[in-house]
Structure formats: C-alpha cells, structure tokens
Predict the 3D structure of the following.
Amino acid sequence: MRLVARQMLLLLCAAGFAATLSSAQIANVEGRTSISLDGSWNSIVDPYETGIQSRYFLNAKPKTKSDLVEYDFARSPKLRVPGDWNTQRESLLFYEGPVWYQRDFSYQKRPHTRTFVHFGAANYQARVWLNGNRLGEHTGGFTPFYFEITDQIADGENSLVVEVDNTRRADGVPALHTDWWNYGGLTRSVRLVEAPEEFIADYSVQLAKNHTDQIEGWVQIKGTPRENTVTVEIPEARQKQTAQVDSTGRASFRMQFKPELWSPDKPKLYRVVLSVGDDNVTDHIGFRTIETRGTQILLNGKPVFLRGICLHEEAPFRSGRAFSEEDDRTLLSWAKELGANFVRLAHYPHNEEMVRLADQMGLLVWEEVPVYWDLQWQNPSTLENAKSQLREVIARDRNRPAIVLWSMSNETPIDEGRTEFLKQLIAYARQLDSTRLITSALNHTDRSGENRTLNDPIGEYLDVLGLNEYIGWYEGTPEDAERTRWNFAHNKPVIISEFGAGAVFGLHGDTETRFTEEYQANLFQHQIAMLQHMPALAGMSPWVLMDFRSPRRPLPGIQEYYNRKGLISDRGQRKQAFYVLQKFYRENAASGLKDVH
Ligand code: GCU
C-alpha cells in the first residue's frame, strides 16, 4: 500500500511541483517580520499513508451529498504546534509513521513583498502543500527549512497541509537505533516570513582570523538587486561600513574595531544591523577566538577547561521535545547552577533559542549532527543527508559565539566505510566554517591491563577528541576508573564527552546497589579522581543533565522508559551526584585549569 502511495506521490510531484526547497537560507527569521502559524492544527494519523492516494493535501470537502470524501480535517482531532505528537495524546506515545497536519490562515498580500513559509524543524520527513499545491519536502528532524510561496499564497484564505513521517529508516540520519525518544511532528515553530524583493538571505559577522581588532564577514543578497551596497552597523561601537554587492549577490567587508570579547564569564553581545535597500536584519553577536594549541583549547588566546554537561532537547517537568524559551532557560540555568561553562547538545541540533540563550547566559556549546551509532556508511544518499543537516545547522548558527565545536558523530564503529564517511563530513564542515573546532564522540579504545589507548584513525582529522567511557556502569566497577591509565594516539585536546550512571531520584542504598543515588554519586567521585591523572584533558561533559525518555529503557519501577542517568530527575529533583559534580566544578572554576593537570 505505502509503496503504491509513494509512486502516486511521485506522479503527483511531477504534475504539481511548484515551489522548491531552498538549500540556501533565510537567516535569522527571529529578527524578521513574521506571522506565527503556531497553535492548534487539525491532524490525521495515517499509519497506512492513505492520505497520498486519497490526496489529503487537497483538504477537499464533499460538494454534493453523494460526493465521497473519506477525511475531514476540520472535524479531526487537534495537535499543538510546536510540539511532538507523542506526549500530546496517550495513543500516540509510541506512534511512528505519517501524521497529516492542516490549518487554514488568512493573509493579506502586499506589493513588492516576498513571502516564505518557514519551519524550525519537523521530525523526520515532511511534505508540504499550500492550497493543494505541493511546495516540496525536507528530510532531517532537527534543522530549519522553508519554501518561497510568493506566487502560491492567496490574498485571503489559505490552507496549509504538512505530512510529517517519523518512521525510522535504515538509510536515515539517525538510522534505526537511538537511545532517545523518536518524538514526531512539527516540533518547532511554523511561521510566514516576509521580505522585500531584494533581501538579506545569509551573513557572517565574526572576528577576522588571528585578529582581535578586526571584524570581517559577508552578506548574501537574494532577489533583484536595486541597490548594490549593503550596510553593516554596530551602533554601540559607532561602527558603520558599506560594501559592494558582486554579481553573485555577495558583499564582503572588513571593519577596524576591537570589540570586548565574548566569554562565559562575560558573554558580551553587540547589536548588529545589516541592511540593503528596504531590507534590514538585526542580530546580537559576540566576538571571540577559539583554537587549539597542543592538548589545550584556547578561548580568546587563553587555555580554558570545559566544565560541561550533556543534555537532550527534552522538556523539563512535562517531558516531550523541548521547544520554548522557558524549557531551554530551565535546562541551561540548571547547567549554570552546576557550575558549568560548557554544554554538549546531544545528539542533534537543538532549537535555535537554546543556542541563542547559551550566547546570552555564557555557555560554550558543542553542537552535533545525528550521525549516531551505525549508519549505512556506503550509501551516498545517507552521506548527502548528513551533509545537508550539517549545512543547515551551520547556516542557522554560524553567528553564535557560544558554539565552539561542531561534532560530526557519536559512538560510530571503527571501519573503513565509516572512517571515509566521516572524513568527507569533516572536510565539508571545514569548507562551510573554518572558524570552529571539529570533534566527534569516540568510544573504541585498545585495552591492556589497566592501560587504555584511544587510537581511532578518525582522530587524525579532528581538532578535538571526544571520548565516551562508561567505566563503572557498562564495564567494571566505579573504583576501576581510578586505576585506569589513559593514552591518546593523537596529540590533541581531549574532552570526556560522556561518562555516567543511572539513578532513580529518592532511591537510596549502598554504593554497590545499581540505580541508587549513592551508586551514581560514588561513580562520579571515582571518575573525577581518574580525570586528575588524564593527560591532554581539556574538558568534560558527563552524561547527562536530566533523565530523558528512551524506548530502550523499559525496566519497571526504575526506568519506565526513561534513561535515568540524569543528575536531575525529569521532575527537576537534584540527585546526590549533582552536588558531587557541582562541588568539583566550583572548586575547579575557582582554581582554574591547574587542578586537573
Ligand atoms: C551512549 C550514548 C547515549 C546513551 C548513553 C547511555 O554512550 O551516546 O546516547 O544515552 O550512552 O547508554 O545512557
């Protein structure tokens, strides 16, 4: 059935393909005039994908009493957008498959105005129609996409239909297995974005390489050039610069200005205004340098120790995919309370608000694409998929000072196909952004007695080595950690990107009893002691800030489909280990780097 539906779809595509998915970008929709389409949408759960054949995208109504129309969005159950569907309806908690969303909206067309429909994210595949016209599709659950609808949108009433399908796929990114809930739906905001005929599609404003007294960047214009100069202004610094737009719509500029540098202690952001013709975009950007020197990471030229924590984009207290500023601020405030200056956003790009808050709150960020565990490494479309997710997240977040690390993968097997795949992804990342550090979370080590060596061939191509190790939980005892001696084949900074143990808040016992707070706290004590002797250690991000839903964790009375390795329960309760790590971070923050080496 579903295959037939897809063939039908292809036929329909050929027939009705209008707007295209732009691989370019409309930067900073937050800083633009936009009309929110968030709220309550009509929804049809369609496990057999009948909707393609029955053409739900037409949102048809029976014209006569004998007309056969076997769906009716208006009388169908509602789903909130943004939000995953799994936590909105008990019956959808485990649902994986297609769900159709539909909403009407009225719109007033304006002269010389281009209109786009923008999605913050939709997990995992989305197909979009406006007034029955197919706009296009997008793959990847965690990055933004949009369609230009200037010619399709009606002056008056419109009907937008989106089919979202979170079916896991062997050739997908991620593929069939993850240790997080496969939340489906329009998980982030949907909005109409307006821009003049000539508009600023993308831009980069950063410190010039190896300079702290020069700002450089570029602005990419789209549309019919009326003006061929762009203006870049930093009002607070009385800086204003114009630059010529070349034939490709690109204008490059350099500004002599020594900004106050952004850092976790002083997260200084400048209001930056970019304009061309009738279009202008305002952003808040910080300036900092990030580099490595031997086994150290240097922020603004000084060694920094990354006191971090991993977190999922899981909503505190209510579970489900986090999407609001409130969700994000709660999670990041907990990280700050822990004494962290760094967060690893696992294992996929989190919402834009999260990284903008990290800018404001002063948290360095590790951002990752969901190349997680095992993928079809030899499959060119899987590589293309990973590349497009990387391109979209870098385009969205390139001006965020908080982001210092792009992570290419998590816990992937050491084999030729994988290493080749990652080499290509790393090269692509460097092409897209040469200003940030490239890393991956590795987990395969060679063992001899108490000696462990991280000698993953991909290490050669990374700037920073991430290491996930679970001594004391998946292997050995917590005490083994202290006896372990680490070696690294590549002379590069190392971040312990994961270690941890499960614990149920309020479950108490001796330090040997699994899932007690005492077991988890004891494991953290020994891990921290081990880190004291770890060469090349430049940072850490234990697993994990808060308990999160996982389909791999069914243990009754303990897990209940939650991964319980949080230092904080999903209800916001701090476990003993939270205070163990907080104490270490506070002492470390006070005494700086030397305490670890
Ligand atoms: C892995 C993985 C995480 C997972 C964690 C765990 O290392 O990277 O996604 O949740 O371990 O097992 O709890």
In short: The chain has nine helices and 33 strands. The CA atoms of residues 23 and 392 lie 8 Å apart.
